[in-house]
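If you are new to this repository, start here. Below is one unmodified record pulled from the training split, so you can see the exact layout before writing a loader.
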Amino acid sequence: MTAINKEPGRREIEELLPWHATGTLSRRDADRVEQALAGDRELARRYDLVLQELAETIHLNETLGAPSAPAASADQSNAISGVHARQRSH
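And here is the target side for that same chain:
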């Protein structure tokens, strides 16, 4: 049994790690995660993995670039056509 499974609420803390990595937790939840990370090396190791995965995802998305102008234009046209069609049907 790992340290994460030994303590009640540890799984909940682990589930918050991705949001903690992106800075989107409430102050209360961020404090809970920080406190748990300080006292649990396995949890801290998992948080490091979350940070690595986040960095890789950001890098991948940045290397993909923006859609080409024709593709973006087609997407916008389709979206506008869909809005007009819904408006006419009401």
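Two things worth knowing about this chain: The two ends are 59 Å apart (CA to CA). Residues 41-64 form the longest helix (24 residues).
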